[in-house]
Amino acid sequence: MKSRSWMAVVLLSACTQAADVESPGVSPAVKPAAPHPAPKAQHGAKHMPPPPAGGVMGSGAAMQDPTGFPPFHDWQAPSGSAISGVGNWSAPVQLTSKPGGGYRPQVAVGPDGQIHALFYERTDDGDLIRHRISSDGQRWSAPAELGHEDNRNWGPDIVARGDGTLAVVYDHALPDFRSRGYFTSWSQGVWSSPQPLTPDDGGEVGSGHLANGSGDTIAYVFIGKTLDPTDRFQAHYRWHKDGQWGPVGDFTDGSVDAWHTNVERRSDGSMLAGWDVGTGGAETQLFVVEGRDGKWGSVENISSTSKPGERVHFAFGADGVDYLTWFHKVAGRPVHIYVRSGRPGSWGPVQEPSRGYGGFHFDPDIAVNDRGVRVLVWGWDAGTQAELVYSVDRGQGWMPPRLVARVGHGKPGLPSIDVDKSGRFYVVWNQGVRGYNEVYTATLEVH
Questions:
Q1: Under a CB-based contact definition with an 8 Å cutoff, are residues 361 and 337 in contact?
Q2: Which of 250, 245, 248 is nearest to 235 (CA)?
Q3: How far apart are CA 424 and CA 421, in angstroms?
Q4: Low-confidence ranges of the chain (pLDDT < 50)
Q5: Surface-to-core class of residue 176, CB atoms within 10 Å of its CB (0-12 exposed, 13-18 middle, 19+ buried)
Q6: What Å distances lie between residue 14 and 17, 248, 262, CA to CA?
Q7: What DSSP character marks residue 334?
Q8: What domains appear along the chain, each with residue ranges and CATH number?
Q9: What's 269's DSSP letter?
Q10: Considering only CA atoms, which of 265, 286, 262, 349 is closest in space to residue 4?
Q11: Measured between alpha carbons, how far is residue 283 from residues 61, 226, 303 in Å?
Q12: Do 433 and 410 meet the contact criterion of CB atoms below 8 Å apart?
């Protein structure tokens, strides 16, 4: 439901017209999803290994490991206190297995309490998306296929809508790194055929996320550029409203790279979107904007009144308080996890639940239940020990972090957290080594 992805390869050029983009027809209540398979890409060769890290420094052409294994894991971790002791989460359940493993998981809880996990696995045909369902977080359905049947289906994001349907966006990348954003929906147990959201213009897209608003409103955000290694990523958006998709719009002008777009909804159908701007791997400036009914408000530079950082995630309290979380790299090393609460135009001071602890701190996500209990999860790598960790704030401040689980091998990353109506929290994350990860899930009851 939230996102979270180290930029897979690199992603589409600015486009302000949508005449050549098909509408994905996102109203399954009117037209049930047909049980027909995703198309094979015409350029679809067999699955290729991921591109190497590296590239043109300072430009969007710098390629990061698409498995979500950033290079800082190979560096010496900062010294400091260790995070020790496993907290109150259930024992982790492994959702994937060899040989395909799993990457970039997402979780969303539906209005009926069903838990939906999404990830992609590596196969001989490509990186293919899988969907699993559970009623309790312990017993899961067999993986179901969705998306394209070949090449790289990267960065999937999922939302559960009030009518019980699901919506997913993802990036489909060809062997030559051209890619487009796609939409698919799930209704009555069937995934619809993927429909393109971005033009077929030879560019790249990535960091695609979506949020459902009031009625049939959907916001889709992403970054894009041409394949030119000197081009810069721009942050873009599209709105779906009144049965059709509008044109592609721009959050940024492309003078500096934009990264890590995200968007999430409040219970009233309004939403917050965010992105960060700056040189890849360096300190970046964080921006957010409020949206409602197909329109965006005034953009805010969160970093100008707080701290630099990247990969913002959101949570929304029943009391009307919004929460932001992000992480901050210093000299390319992720060492700070921040949380800020308030409302657009009126944000409170920055809190740092990771303060005082050694190691690298990265990829935070946050959720809040109706009782106002906040749960923050993030990846922690101290070199000799690396696990997913968490902290709880019941209103008196963030508790000292503890381990979600003791997997005992590899590095954690890219967690996604959601909460059900009873206040129970669910998290999914991937953990492993460069080139191979598994996906895990766990459940937390907070009293």
A1: yes
A2: 250
A3: 7
A4: 2-65
A5: exposed
A6: 9, 8, 18
A7: E
A8: 71-444 (2.120.10.10)
A9: S
A10: 262
A11: 18, 24, 10
A12: yes
Q: Write down the pLDDT at residue 67.
A: 53
- Cα 333 to Cα 330: distance, rounded to the nearest angstrom: 5
Q: Which residues are paired to 93 by β-bridges? A: 441
What's the length of the chain?
A: 447
Q: For residue 277, how many other CB atoms are within 10 A of its CB?
A: 24
| Residue whose entry in the numeric block shows the structure tokens 């009782």 | 371
- Residue 219: per-residue pLDDT: 98
Q: What is the pLDDT of residues 363-407, one digit of tens each?
A: 999 999 999 999 999 999 999 999 999 999 999 999 999 999 999
According to DSSP, residue 72 is labeled: G
Instruction: Quote the pLDDT of residue 281.
Output: 75
C-alpha span between 204 and 266 (Å, rounded)? 30
What is the CB neighbour count within 10 angstroms for residue 61?
23
CB 166 within 8 A of CB 226: no
- Do residues 81 and 356 touch, judged by C-beta distance below 8 A? yes
Residues 346, 355, 365, 300, Cα dihedral to 10°: 30
| Sheet with strand 402-403: strands edge to edge | 360-368, 374-381, 386-393, 402-403
Backbone phi, then psi, for 74, in 5-degree steps?
A: -90, -5
CA atoms of 258 and 225, how far apart (whole Å): 10
Q: Quote the pLDDT of residue 279.
A: 87
Contact 92, 441 (CB under 8 A): yes
What pLDDT does 282 receive? 83
Cα angle for residues 320, 323, 324 (degrees, 5° grid): 150
Instruction: Output the pLDDT for position 12.
Output: 33
Which amino acid makes up residue 375? Answer: V
What sign has the CA pseudo-torsion 270, 301, 299, 254?
Answer: negative
Q: Is 313 in contact with 325 (CB distance < 8 Å)?
A: yes
Q: What are phi and psi of 153, to 5 degrees?
A: -105, 95
Name residue 239's amino acid.
Answer: W
**Encoding tokens for residue 239?**
């709105």
The pLDDT score that the predictor gives to residue 229 is 86
- State yes or no: cis peptide before 99, omega within 30 of 0: yes
| 348 to 319, 321, 343, 366, 431: CA distances (angstroms) | 15, 11, 9, 17, 33
